[in-house]
Write a structure and sequence with these properties.
The structure is a homodimer. The first copy, chain A, is mostly helical. In chain A, α3 crosses α4. Chain A is globular, with a radius of gyration of 22 Å. The relative contact order of chain A is 0.12. Chains A and B meet through β1, α1, α2 and α4 of A and β1, α1 and α5 of B. Chain B binds a DNA duplex through α5.
Amino acid sequence: MEQDEGNNNTNGGMFVKVMTDEQMEVLRKQIAIYATICEQLVDLHKSLTSHHDLGGVRLGNLYSDPLVTSGGHKFSGRQRWTPTPVQLQILERLFEQGNGTPSKQKIKEITSELSQHGQISETNVYNWFQNRRARSKRKQQVSSAPNNGESEVETEVESPKPQQNSASTADDNMCFQNPNVSSGISSVD
Amino acid sequence: MEQDEGNNNTNGGMFVKVMTDEQMEVLRKQIAIYATICEQLVDLHKSLTSHHDLGGVRLGNLYSDPLVTSGGHKFSGRQRWTPTPVQLQILERLFEQGNGTPSKQKIKEITSELSQHGQISETNVYNWFQNRRARSKRKQQVSSAPNNGESEVETEVESPKPQQNSASTADDNMCFQNPNVSSGISSVD
DNA sequence: CTTTTATGAATGAAGG
DNA sequence: CCTTCATTCATAAAAG
């Protein structure tokens, strides 16, 4: 399988993603708008499909196998909670704001809020925040990993693999522009 | 904006923000989530408007990254690390040595050693051991307890089609696909 | 080129 | 809080 032959980052050695405050703010607003639109669309579809229980139109793969569904009780093999996209969005935002200090009371509130978008429990929220925090920390560690003397990359007599490292340095080129979500909602203010 | 991220780089009064890889990843994921929502909504809408008695809710897990698989342009998505043969040998040997409890310090050492044979990060090593152990355990699990009068083990309860057709025939008529990540802000200097 | 398999990576949950 | 485990997802590699 060929890799992207178009090297997009061969200009200069170091390439970092730099955004101005203005761009940051614009992007943030756009994402917020996007979130709102999606929520509304989901809600709309829920209304439309109310004529017959469509079951879990759950966005995301929270599908449960219809195996052994005889009877009514569901003890399917899947027990692991999976946040819906909307829930994830909310959680991410809270994490960004709350600076990782989830108090017990806060957990209850969040759970209540997220229940509107799917099945969730307080434990789920708690775990999510804990995991998120731990993961962020670890990412920071890795980000500033001491570059060991990568002297030479032997082996691979031929077939030059572009780069196989995905965790050390920035390798993915983010590319997002102003999503003109729908026609003409771009104006924020 | 939240400047408590510790990313306070006010060097020379430059009003720029440098996104860390983590932030980039979060952003990418969020956008991907929205794109996924939109795709599914479109799909759902198509189903609702075409046939009333659709043979079932179609919740295939289209989890492909719309940012990467968006038809046309290709960015340097995430490439996963692939161990070189030499690295694999070393890893296998270490695994067999009974050092089945790779501590953080050990991980560092191993990473240092392996980096002499190719690009690798601590995360890669960590994941490799985790996966290795889990796989071994899984294999053992399957091997044991196959007989007990109790058959009907689900073995693999997999969804009918875990793979969604890429529809790469360029004949895909979608009203509007994902938020259109065409021209981006590759690098704002 | 398409389908299948092997495996690196992501993540929810549990343990300490 | 931090570490570890189990499960699942995505994709490079292999098979057809």
